[in-house]
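PROTOCOL LOG
Step 1. Enter all chains and additional molecules of the complex.
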Amino acid sequence: MSKKSNLPQPTDAELEILQILWEAGPSTVRFVNGRLNEQQEKEIGYTTTLKLMQIMTEKKLLSRNTETRTHVYLAEAVQEVTQKALLKKFVDAAFQGSATSLVMQALGNHQTSQEELDEIKALIEKIEKG
Amino acid sequence: MSKKSNLPQPTDAELEILQILWEAGPSTVRFVNGRLNEQQEKEIGYTTTLKLMQIMTEKKLLSRNTETRTHVYLAEAVQEVTQKALLKKFVDAAFQGSATSLVMQALGNHQTSQEELDEIKALIEKIEKG
DNA sequence: TTGCGTTTACGAAATATTTCGTATATCATT
DNA sequence: AATGATATACGAAATATTTCGTAAACGCAA
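Step 2. Run joint prediction.
Step 3. Record the structure below.
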């Protein structure tokens, strides 16, 4: 029996940081702050990003290596698990729990390439098989 | 040129109220408050719900008929439009903009009936044709 | 018309989230 | 060891969101 000890859900700002760490792997505060400011219009201060990452470390969303002067942060929250939890909450909140209507909206709105459609069809087949 | 005057995005608590109005149609505060308390564990006070609905009216998410003593509230935010906007924000925030990986997660996690799968397949075909 | 139950109005408290100012520590270079 | 550049720590301000207490207004029944 392993305690899964569910992680708290990240806030919006925290999620942005997680995305960066998921994509880039373990990183310093400066790196993350740089990435945030690439993507955004308004500058975010270095200490703002630092504070958030410290809070996230307290919440166990991140961990860090403090051996070197420049701390290196690592995402503890696993991407798939986090996304799954957020998705469930979102489906309930915005689509009254109907994953299907969410899927229909998502497919309808965005333009989806043939490759992606094939992926989805393959998944559907897999589900249908059992 | 019709001004679409984008509505502000509802907060979580506001979205719960919208869901109820979308489903039930124009309703009084007491009705909405009752519904909220059916679905939830912790009691939400009448004036709490009232205040939220008043704020939402200011934001134009709702409108109300004040002719009778008991005001009747109506959802101004259209369900599909609101869902679409929320979905876009969510896909960006949690799935780095990839609607497809969201769809894959959604289909993978939830158990989806054959009817629903058929619906989705039909939509995919339609997309592939057009 | 008086009183009771219900409603809305208003403002503020409680909470959560985001941002930043300032102090302090560390390292590398001189 | 002193200096400058860069790092973290801490606390608090700014903002957004949620909740509620209290008062005033209304309508109905006695």
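Step 4. Note key features.
Chain B touches chain A through 40 residues (CB under 8 Å).
DSSP finds six helices and two strands in chain B.
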